[in-house]
Amino acid sequence: xxxxxxxxxxxxxxxxxxxxxxxxxxxxxxxxxxxxxxxxxxxxxxxxxxxxxxxxxxxxxxxxxxxxxxxxxxxxxxxxxxxxxxxxxxxxxxxxxxxxxxxxxxxxxxxxxxxxxxxxxxxxxxxxxxxxxxxxxxxxxxxxxxxxxxxxxxxxxxxxxxxxxxxxxxxxxxxxxxxxxxxxxxxxxxxxxxxxxxxxxxxxxxxxxxxxxxxxxxxxxxxxxxxxxxxxxxxxxxxxxxxxxxxxxxxxxxxxxxxxxxxxxxxxxxxxxxxxxxxxxxxxxxxxxxxxxxxxxxxxxx
Length: 302
Hints:
Elements: E1 4-7, E2 17-25, E3 28-37, E4 41-46, H1 59-65, E5 69-74, H2 91-105, E6 110-115, H3 118-128, E7 132-138, H4 145-148, H5 153-164, H6 167-175, H7 179-190, H8 199-209, H9 214-222, H10 232-240, E8 246-251, H11 256-266, E9 272-276, H12 282-285, H13 287-299
Parallel strand pairs: 4-5, 4-6, 6-7, 7-8, 8-9
Antiparallel strand pairs: 1-2, 2-3, 3-5
Helix pairs in contact: 1-13, 2-3, 5-6, 5-9
């Protein structure tokens, strides 16, 4: 596959060197934006999938890690400042992307820190090849919002099709990305400190959702089309197949269903875990607490 690394100054980041990775998928070139900060051992920092997914959500954590690591944070294809074409977003895209990106940017096994839905993709690549030396999962999830709420694959598919449609889809998407709705969702299961959900914070999140083509990958995530596994058994089997150290960080206020899945994960032999304040957005809300919780694991030789 033909790929190129190009520097760009057009993006707004968290103070690192912003670059673009040109990646081909099914004869279509996608521009994937990533940012590098710090010096030291390489560390890949992956934001969660969501309607507001962007590398900026891990920006503060990246800055805290930068004194000891060369941190690379990405905007997933279809999210953030990366290309957002009207693809049929599905796991194969992200599986191939992550494998190609890691191979192109790093020349040695690296530490990976993955938030939310990025967990399954990191685990799958780790099982497939020796890409990572250790893995940290932050509030890991594997099932999208609609399936978590009990929607069947058929219903989820209908919703996804509606949101992808030209006129009705854009209208439906706008209704579900209003600033009031984003604020509601953050208060419900993303942040725990309402004082941090300021109008300016929500304004920035809203701006992310309003980029051209933003609804396509977002609809795929919400309806479960980015679920890399579909059963708890398969998710746990990935962890059991790992040959590298794994640590899991859980937010004490995580939604009940998500917390059940995380508890099943950390009950497996050999999985290190810690519970800290926060919910599904703990990496953005409490970055310093996250770093403190994983510091010993990061710097240990085991």
